[in-house]
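Now for our specimen.

. . .
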Amino acid sequence: MVTQTAENFDTPDSTEATTASVLIIDDEPIAIKNLSYVLNREGYKVTTRSTGTGGFKALEDQVFDVVITDLKMEKVDGMGILKKAQEVDPDLPVILLTGHGSYDSVVKAMKMGAYHYLSKPYQLDDIREIVKNALELVSLKRENKRLKSRITDEPAGVQILSQDPHILSLVDTMRQIAPSDCNAIISGENGTGRELAARFIHANSPRHKQPFTVVNCSALQEEILSSELFGYPDSSHGLLADTAGGTLFLDEIDQLSPGLQVKLLRAIQEKTIQSPNSKQNIPINVRFLAATNQDLEQAVSEGRFREDLFYRLNIIHIHLPPLTERTEDIALLAYYFLKKHSRLMDKVIDDFEPEVIEALNQYHFPGNIRELENLIERAVVLATGNTITLTQLPSDLTDHSLSVMRFNKNRLPTLDEQEIEYIKWVLDKCGGNRTRAAAILGIDRVSLWRKIKKNNL
């Protein structure tokens, strides 16, 4: 408990204190006493001042996360405290305590950027909830600023942005293998950045000044792809020869035909290819990086992919997780794409409303990082100010609620019926990807398969 003995009423930290600090300014001792007791019990570091002048000086001398101030005080009132708080930290939330007849002042304060107001007498439970929400908001804003600063400081070149420990470990692995000539397989869902990972390895290797050639193994017919790789009859060189000293990135390697698998295996083993115009062998100097969104080991066991080719490529295996497994990176990547597309469109857009980041963090991103970039690009196109708002996001992304489905006018659905509809909804949102759907549903893939089979979905 706190008694009024001087201008300063700093309360001790509770045993469960957090780093969050609250400044309370009020000229009524009982108000300071009650607010201090309640917020100290919540684990906050509480500092109190009994005059506006004292609160003004406290803002100059200390750093706070939330300010609670009475509106009507002598010399320096709540409006003066609000102005000072905004000078110190534009994101610092200020909660005003108002008496009767203060409506015009409250309206003015809210227009100036006050976070919230409470009319006296107020409920202490309301204070708890408002302070909690204010702390969440200021934490989000400060984290967003930190991410913006990090993006600004990122060096040019091939970047893999992350603060996720698993991704950072993968980046370390890629840096370790980059100087060698070992081949590697990069696996992961579409949109997780498989090509970016390959470019990162190439950029950090001694081959970085030589070509980085991309081949999509599913985009061309077998005969055309063979000619592209090994050369056309009227030309002595294909991509394998033209990528001399560089890196050949074979995307969707699982789609390679059996015949081309044999030719590629021979090229990797012998480091030569046969000229299409003669039987002469042409030496090749290429590093092979292959990518897939499939389980290649399963493809080998089912006879769809050559085991010997798999082991030639799979010296190192790098698996990129979906974006839903690295949610710490969503805001970081969003700011990166915001900066990128604002610059490309010659727009000055430098921030998101906090609600936008919250909505992005709650979304499941079936298209992974590629989908996130598309969403940010769309938002930049639609933006009319310098901040992205919820109105620039698709409605299905901001609507996370699932309504109860009524199957007829006379009854609500059973729990089993609701489960079936939810499973169908999740599968649809995941584009039919059962592994992803099972992860979202919190069950294993076999259990999901049984439910699909049982309900004939």
Remarks:
- Residues 1-18, 401-410 have pLDDT under 50 and may be disordered.
- The longest strand covers residues 287-292.
